[in-house]
Design a protein that fits this description.
The chain has helices at residues 10-26, 28-55, 59-108, 122-137, 140-180, 184-227, 232-242, 248-265, 267-293, 301-315, 317-338; strands at residues 112-115, 118-121. It has 346 residues and is mainly α.
Length: 346
């Protein structure tokens, strides 16, 4: 008689998932480049499939062409952003003493402020802050820390560039390998749930990319030409990134840009900024967001904020990236199971 193994207990599966989550927590920093590369390749996968179906390319050839297109876009945007930010940074570094002095003078309502018997002078305070900042940056420990962060950033960027091609070239095999980790008696059901999650997740990630580009481009036009603030591109990129964090992100970016507009140009800049925020929010919330996200966006903001906070506390930046996809996937899993008829007792 042929020996047969016993079915895998669901408690054993739960334990394995718990161990996997604990492992992810330990290596959360190492996971980040893989996660970013996988997300980019996942969004670019439709182009990969289109090349194969339209021109009959092999998987490797289509992946190479899709990879070249992704690298061209990322390289062009990165080069333009670096050039612009470097120019703005040089100008701001040159004008830093005057800008900081102007900020304190407007905050004090003049050159001096009497605070609890202490006279604060705008010029002296701004110079003191700059001297302290440059002293800290120039310390050996800080230089070592900056060098380490720079090396880590370069290593992570190179790893992401390499991994994008591997994910484009071997995406289906990696998905099959992940499914193989599931016990055979559960694979069909897991595959069915994955097929339901796939279009939702793909549209969500692609929609986020569109929203980021739209928010950054619209913000750059307003900040650069209407508000005429320093670091227009950097502020626009931050606005695009903050837009991906519901409620809290838009509030943070609006507060940052509004304070800079008030500090640099006064009251009428705030009026112009209020018009910009109104138009921006209407376009994002009523037009672009629903159009590109569709059903993927139908998660209550409180659930999204909790997912962001929980993901950030658990896995850091990787958890923030995974927060909404995991929340959306949990919803699909619950819909799948709750739609099935319940078994009658006995």
């Amino acid at each position: 008689m042929e020996d047969r193994r016993a079915p895998v207990n669901k408690w054993a599966v739960t334990l394995a998932v718990g161990v996997a989550l604990a492992f992810l927590y330990v290596v959360r920093l190492a996971v980040l480049p893989f996660l970013i590369a996988a997300a980019i390749a996942y969004v670019a996968e439709p182009a990969n499939l289109w090349l194969r179906r339209r021109f009959g390319f092999s998987r490797n050839a289509a992946a190479l062409l899709a990879y070249a297109a992704v690298m061209a876009v990322l390289g062009g945007v990165g080069y333009w952003a670096a050039e612009t930010i470097a120019t703005d940074f040089a100008i701001t570094l040159r004008d830093a003493p005057a800008l900081l002095h102007k900020f304190f003078a407007e905050l004090f309502g003049g050159e001096e402020l009497n605070l609890f018997g202490h006279r604060l002078q705008a010029a002296a305070l701004s110079q003191q802050i700059l001297d302290s900042l440059f002293a800290k940056i120039g310390s050996p420990q800080q230089i070592l820390n900056l060098a380490f962060l720079g090396f880590a950033a370069i290593t992570g960027a190179v790893l992401i560039i390499i991994l994008i091609f591997y994910f484009l070239q071997a995406g289906p095999q990696l998905a099959e390998g992940a499914l193989w980790l599931v016990p055979p008696e559960y694979r069909e059901e897991v595959a069915e749930i994955a097929r339901k999650i796939d279009p939702l997740l793909r549209r969500y990630l692609g929609g986020l990319f569109v929203i980021f580009l739209f928010a950054a481009a619209l913000s750059w036009i307003a900040i650069r030409f209407a508000l005429q603030l320093h670091f227009a591109l950097l502020l626009a990129l931050l606005t695009g990134l903050f837009e991906l964090v519901p409620v809290i992100g838009p509030m943070a970016s609006a507060t940052l840009v509004g304070l800079l507009a008030l500090e640099q140009h006064g009251f009428w800049a705030v009026v112009a900024f209020a018009v910009y925020v109104t138009v921006f929010r209407l376009l994002i919330d009523r037009v672009v967001g629903p159009l590109v996200l569709g059903r993927a966006a139908h998660i209550h903001p409180t659930v999204v904020m909790f997912a962001f906070l929980a993901g950030g506390l658990f896995l850091g930046v990787a958890g923030v990236i995974l927060a909404v996809p995991v929340a959306a996937s949990v919803r699909v899993v619950l819909e799948h199971y709750y739609s099935q008829p319940t078994r009658r007792p006995g």
